[in-house]
Design a protein that fits this description.
two-stranded antiparallel sheet; 2 strands; single chain
């Protein structure tokens, strides 16, 4: 009886994987009108279909379970921990962009949260009015004059761009979780378990924090692909220009229309 259940479960997983790959491949094969700003649309739609399926059958159920069983205090502690690690990339990119005053603030925030905040589990920095900033290597490359390049959807990671992919690699190089091999032995099973486990925990925690956005996306997106694409581009423009959006940006238009009402930020 137990073996039959195991076989059924394994068969279900195989079916889901096969279905996901079929959706992914069919999306790649679908033809769309050529768009000079989105030349990889066939690949992108296939990748988004794959990501949507992965989210529906894996990430969303796991995130809901995580959100249900995880005490609020513990949930906040996990989010604070990963936010604190991300601040290493933030204050480094501050400096690379010439924002030395902000880099000093973000370095102080990291040191305070790491020490007084017990490894970043408690956000002491915010308590003493050291604000959280959002800088990454993609923004640094933009400041250095590197073009965005075509829009690109990455399997597992989601919306990006050619420059954004390079920025992602740069941020990963600044993440200490990438170097667990130094502490646990390069190539060891323990090293992979720690880095992989922390990566999965961060993904689940981030998805759980965004469960409330699903209704907004479902109601506002006629075409999910275009919705995520526009949201990503607008969000990146907002960050790269430090909120000082160019006149042609859609969020700038909404700000002017609504009497400078603070814009809604996206992915």
């Amino acid at each position: 009886m137990i073996m039959n259940k195991k076989k059924k479960k394994a068969k279900t997983i195989e079916t889901l994987i096969a279905a996901g790959m079929l959706v992914f491949l069919s999306g790649c094969a679908t033809t769309h009108a050529p768009d000079p700003e989105d030349p990889w649309q066939g690949w992108n739609r296939g990748a988004q279909s794959f990501n949507d399926g992965l989210d529906q059958y894996v990430m969303k159920p796991v995130a809901k379970g995580y959100d249900t069983v995880m005490p609020t205090v513990a949930h906040h502690a996990v989010s604070n921990f990963f936010s604190n690690i991300d601040d290493i990339s933030v204050f480094t990119n501050d400096a690379l962009q010439g924002k030395f005053s902000q880099s000093g603030q973000d370095t102080a925030r990291f040191l305070v949260n790491t020490s007084a905040g017990v490894g970043g589990l408690v956000d002491v920095g915010t308590m003493i009015e050291l604000p959280k900033h959002f800088e990454d290597f993609d923004q640094t490359l933009a400041l250095w004059g590197v073009n965005t390049g075509p829009y690109l959807v990455l399997p597992f990671f989601g919306p990006s761009s050619a420059r954004g992919f390079a920025g992602l690699l740069g941020d990963m190089a600044l993440n200490p979780i990438s170097y667990t091999g130094i502490y646990f032995g390069s190539g060891s099973g323990l090293s992979y378990a720690v880095s992989g486990g922390l990566g999965v925990l961060k993904a689940v925690d981030t998805r759980a924090n965004n469960l409330g956005l699903e209704k907004v996306i479902s109601e506002g997106a006629v075409d999910r692909y275009q919705f995520f694409k526009s949201a990503y581009i607008s969000r990146r423009n907002y960050l790269i220009h430090d909120g000082n959006l160019p006149d042609e940006d859609v969020l700038k238009y909404l700000e002017d229309k609504d009497n400078n009402l603070a814009p809604v930020t996206h992915y």
